[in-house]
Amino acid sequence: MYAEHPGHAPTERAVEVHHPTPITPAAVTPAPLVPVQPGSVPAVASVVLPDGRVVTGYAIEPAKPEPVAAKPPVSRAAVNVALGGVGFLAVCGGLLLLTTFITALTALVTQLIILAAVIFGGWIAVQVFSASSHKGGTTVNIRKAVFKRNHFHS
Q1: What is the DSSP letter of 142?
Q2: Please, which residues have CB within 8 angstroms of residue 26's CB and are 6 or more apart in sequence?
Q3: DSSP track, 61-95
Q4: pLDDT single digits (tens) 13-56
Q5: How far, in Å, CA of 108 to CA of 101, rounded?
Q6: 143 DSSP 8-state letter
Q7: What are the φ and ψ backbone dihedral angles of 132, each rounded to 5 degrees?
């Protein structure tokens, strides 16, 4: 049954069994049936199924959904104010984009003018320095020059 441990005597345990007690159902008294006369006799409909069976029953009107509450009308003044606000924001955004474009265009033109000045200035410098050294122009040596006006002779 149980494993014995050294130094302990085997013991037996008492087992207690619980049995559920059944619950007795409460006495149900049927409600008295009161015959009710319908206001109108509903129409009985019969349907023949494809396998030949006939199903007969009363036609039931489908449940009608509750009408949706009508939205309150929006005043013309509110619509005009909203449209005016949207138009104003569009104009402000357009002016901001226009000023940004003009600023960028001005910076581009300024850069192009500076670039043209640097290129043209470089071209002029090349013309000046190349003309004096390569074309055999007159070189004046001041130490050997004779200045007749002040009577300096060498």
Answers
A1: G
A2: none
A3: PPPPPPPPPPPPPPPHHHHHHHHHHHHHHHHHHHH
A4: 777 877 777 777 666 666 666 666 656 666 777 788 889 888 88
A5: 10
A6: G
A7: -80, -25
CA 58 to CA 46: how far, in whole Å?
9
In the block, tokens 């345990």 appear at 13
Scanning the chain, the segments in alpha helix (DSSP H) are 76-134
Q: Which residues contact 2 (CB under 8 A, 6 or more apart)?
A: 10, 11
CA separation, residue 43 to residues 53, 56, 64, 93 (Å): 20, 11, 19, 69
pTM over 0.90: no
Residues 6+ apart with CB under 8 A from 145: 154
- Let me know how long the chain is: 154
Closest-CA residue to 85 (of 97, 93, 74): 93
Please give the radius of gyration of the chain, using alpha carbons only, rounded to the nearest integer: 58
Closest CA to 43 of 60, 26, 29: 60
